[in-house]
Design a protein that fits this description.
Elements lengths: L3 E3 L8 E3 L2 E2 L7 E3 L4 E6 L10 H9 L3 E4 L9 H4 L4 H18 L2 E7 L1 H12 L5 E5 L7 H12 L4 E3 L17 E3 H14 L10 E6 L8 H9 L4 E6 L12 H16 L1
Parallel strand pairs: 5-6, 5-7, 7-8, 8-11, 11-12
Antiparallel strand pairs: 1-2, 2-3, 4-6, 9-10
Helix pairs in contact: 1-8, 5-6
């Protein structure tokens, strides 16, 4: 959606998007490697920084990697207020097609909303070699939907941020401080559309779930596991919160993800 202007500096701004600074560490990854491809997707109001450890691991293994910065993310919340799920899913689809056009096999890995997009791609592309959904948002409770609708009706535009749910002391996710309500509504409406399609997923699925998640209930993963049609593998992590890729068990998540991806593409 945004045109990129390269501008490397010694400060915190390394890439410009329509003259809007990208948050340091939120830069996307596009790496041409082997005929094996990995698509890596970040979460809602977050940015690629939360998933960089996974993207870097696949790059180190020689894979081709795409980790897009989803439209409106990693810059300012005002940018995000101009976007919707249609923009985020279109970017995920674009990145997937780029890998599919050049790779023999592709796996998709996503955190939170990135996990939702991973599942969405799985409903559309049975040829995906493997799906890794990390604390995916899959079920929208009626109370949450009503709360957001009531806040919008009252003229509210944002609610407190949902980022940086991390148990590890001193680690902070560079997500937005606030959550834009219209965009949250867009995500919830998309989740409601995707949920009935989950049985269409036949690709092997690895679900990685934080036992103590304060953003997405672990029961969302339980539901996904119970309705998809393909084989499911699961891991539960007791020490980390929602952003597990930046938390105590991040290295274990990377190792398990690589193990699964290699097994599915061998």
């Amino acid at each position: 959606m945004f045109g990129l202007q390269l501008g490397v500096t010694a400060g915190s701004v390394r890439i410009m998007s329509n003259a809007v600074p990208i948050i340091a560490g939120a830069e996307p990854v596009s790496h041409a490697g082997s005929s094996l491809g990995a698509l890596v997707l970040h979460g809602f109001t977050g940015n690629p920084g939360s998933m960089r450890i996974i993207a870097d691991a696949f790059v180190a293994e020689g894979w081709s990697v795409e980790m897009p910065r989803l439209p409106g993310h990693g810059t300012t919340i005002e940018d995000m207020m101009e976007t919707s799920f249609d923009d985020w899913s279109a970017e995920a689809e674009r990145a997937y097609q780029k890998l599919a056009d050049s790779c023999e096999r592709v796996v998709v890995i996503g955190l939170s909303m990135g996990g939702s997009l991973t599942l969405w791609l799985g409903t559309r592309h049975a040829e995906i070699a493997g799906l890794v959904a990390i604390n995916p948002a899959a079920v929208i409770g009626p109370d949450m939907a009503t709360m957001v609708q009531d806040m919008l009706a009252a003229g509210e535009k944002v609610m407190p941020g949902i980022g940086s749910d991390i148990a590890k002391e001193g680690v902070v996710e560079t997500a937005y401080a606030d959550t834009p309500l219209l965009q949250l509504k867009s995500l919830m409406e998309a989740s409601q559309r995707i949920e009935p399609q989950l049985p269409r997923i036949t690709s092997p699925l690895l679900l990685l779930t934080s036992e103590n998640d304060h953003v997405v209930p672990p029961t969302d993963s339980d539901h996904v596991a119970s309705v998809v049609s393909g084989p499911v593998e699961r891991e539960i992590y007791p020490l980390s919160y929602h952003v597990i890729t930046m938390d105590h068990e991040a290295e274990a998540v990377v190792a398990r993800t690589l193990e699964f991806a290699k097994a599915r593409t061998s």
